[in-house]
Structures are given as C-alpha cells and as structure tokens.
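Cross-check.
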Amino acid sequence: MTDLERKLAEALRGQAEEVTPNLDAAWAEQQRRQRRPHRRRRAAVWIAPLAAVLVVLTSVSVATQVDVPAPPADPGQVLTIGRPEMSPVIVDSGEPKALTDFVGQTDTWTSYAVENTDNAGKRILCVLALPKGVAYGGPNSNFGIESPSCVPLSGSPVLAGYIGKYGGPLPEGKAVFLVDRGVRELRLYDVVGDLSQAKPIGTLGSGQLFLADVKPGSPPVRFAVS
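Predicted model, tokenized:
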C-alpha cells in the first residue's frame, strides 16, 4: 500500500468514527430514561389510592356536617295549668261537653267538661265522669271517683287544662284544654319534645275545648298555638 492509499484509509476511518454512534453511551442513556418513568409509575401506584382515600374522607366529612342537625331548641311555650282539686258542688253554667267514654272497674263512664264558678266567684274548668247513658243533672247522675275535679282559669291562650289519670274523671292517656276562641291549632310537647296534636271538640264558656291523646306518664309540658 502506498503512502497515499494509507493516508486515505486513515481519513476514512476517522470519518467513520465520527458518524458511528457510541453504543455504550446510547445504552446508558436509554437505561437512564427507562428508570425515570419507572419511578414515576411507582409513585402513581401509591399516590392514586391515597387520593381516592382523601376524596372519600372529605365526602364523609362534608356529609357529616350536612346531615347532623343542630340540637333543637325547646318548642313552644311553657305550659302552666292549675292543680286540680275536687269540688263538692258544681254551680250549673251550661250543659257539660262530652269528652270520651272509658271503662272503669264496674261501669262504662263518660267524661265531661264544664266551666263553672267557685265559691270565691272565680271561673273554673271542671272535669267529671258519669255512668254512660245517664243524663247530667238527673236522679242517677252519681259522679265517679275524684269527680268533679276542677282547675282555675289562668292566662291566655291556654286558659285551663286537665291531664287524665288512672281512677280520675278523665282516663289516663287523655288531656283536655280550654283555650282562647281564636286558636285554630294546639300542639303539645312532652319533656323530650314528642308532639301530641290536640283536636277541637267545641266551644265551652269562655273559650273552646281541645282534646288530646298524650303519653301516659309523660304529660305535656310545652305548647304552641296558631
């Protein structure tokens, strides 16, 4: 090989080294790039479930804040009624209003309400019981136990009330109230806030009567009217 041929071969070899890729360097770069996405994928594996858990916890927290109501305030007004006392004499002031029938130890009775005047001239609401079918004021109008029981008329809008009791002239689980004539609706609440809806049954003297079913042993302590 002549000097000219040798120089030409060396020149070609140099140019080939410039354009030939460095396989070792390329392989190292490829490995480096593959390792970086792999780390991102591993991070995504635990980040995605964590994000889902956070979403669930946030939803539960929001739902808890929305669904849990604030403690309710005491409804209505405090119910104040007089203490009932037995009255030996009832001064007639109109026909009594029948309330309900109930079974006693020996007979079936009918409860009545009547507005009267006591010996001091004050208005009172009396509840009495007569044997069913016996006319008030007749010869057989003997009263039942603790009958009549009377309470004084007090403030407005609930003028007076009587809570039924075992052995009384109004059976347990019933209550009667005399209210202002303008009252259309009477709602009663016991000590835990349970509602009893009273029903109007007619006028009597100074107002109108409402009869309610109440929980035995848990009489109404608050009221609301409309």
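Residues 29 and 226 are 85 Å apart (CA to CA). The chain has a mean pLDDT of 77. Passed to J.P. for a second look.
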